[in-house]
# Entry
Amino acid sequence: MTRGRKGDRGKRVYHFGAGGAEGGTSLRDLLGGKGAELAEMTNLRIPVPPGFTITTEVCTHFMSHDGAYPSDVEAEVDAHVHRVEEETGKKFGSGPNPLLVSVRSGARRSMPGMMDTVLNLGLNDTTVQALAAKADNPRFAFDSYRRLIQMYANVVMGVDAALFETAIADRRRSAGVELDHLLPVDAVRAMVDDFLDIVRTHTGREFPLDPREQLWGAIAAVFKSWNSPRAISYRRLSGYPDHWGTAVNVQAMVFGNMGNDCATGVAFTRDPSTGEKRFFGEYLVNAQGEDVVAGIRTPLPVADGEESLESRMPGAYAELVEIYRKLERHYRDMQDIEFTIEAGRLWLLQTRTGKRTGRAAVRIAVEMVDEGAIDRRTAVARVAPEQLEQLLHPAIDAESAPEPIAQGLPASPGAASGKVVFAVDRAVALAGEGEAVILVRSETSPEDIDGMRVARAILTATGGMTSHAALVAHDWKDRPVWFQRGWQNQA
# Structure
């Protein structure tokens, strides 16, 4: 056990669920940020799907022992899977009510999108039929199955993600629809077969149908992603040490893609761009969380407007407001939360201290002092020197500015000019030659990290203010990186 930690000696796996959680924010170094906050929310009696966290110490052992686990870890994980089965009344990998789980990373400090995630683990040709029957919704079941194959094959088996995106686009064209969630059930079933063929063709192996094999494949992939090139690059740029390692969080799935009474979203307890005290967030109906953060669909606002969550699902929205206020009071800081609504029932999947611009940092600190939430010393400590520098970033004089040719949503402050580039390698090369570049993408992914870092500005065609690109732009406070989405030519 690492000196200074307060976890139980020899314990490698910590549970969180209906009966409470083992640990909390005091064990952040051991449980990682996500695991610590899941435990903390559970102990605050906030609705969190049950699960367990495999500690960062297992990751460091895994890395230093050529991918081997401590001798007792597999038995601990099996016992915790059984505990989640008992709490949910579901069975992992079998039965009329199959349990599906997600496997996510959890470093001590937030590294948005830099490490791997796999959702919907536990599905195969048998359990997908059981899930379809239980939910009385074959489209939902097969959509979840194709998502598992797509994510697992890319993250664990190394299959190029573009192959799956091409197959999805082909199915959309054949069905005459523009968006994935509009594909009919027959097209989604066929897409499962398409994806299995892609795996077979490009790996020479079959997709693993044993849920336990899926689980351990995903756990290993998340540990390995700590040393992926994008994670190493992000740590170097953010000043995080390599020896921390990541925890792994295994959690019962809740589904935002079961129908129109389901949704998923990301929200901030205050505006991360301006610091205004308003509930700010985005959501998608009939979707899973990765659809929001990946920026592949343009989301809707959580509050205000006919299409907002507040209007469409007022009961779930009211509960979400109550929870976000409770979290901000508890942490005494602006929170970034991830939520899913399954058949009208709200679940919280994450909370963390929200990333913010320099302008927002100053406003939030001052207003929280005025509200009595923090003292002046704490407020001063929360505003970093580089955040103050952001207030001096270039800006466009609205009175003398020319007529705009496009418009979008700014997620980070400042104005920028440069040469438009569409490829990450090209952006890095031109920046290395002293050129100012603006990176333009359909949407960004973690693989774009080096191009995003050298760009003076980032412009994407899809995604929202809570997507990967926006969060990274907020995090890099030492240069005027910004982000727009939904841009349209106005000329």
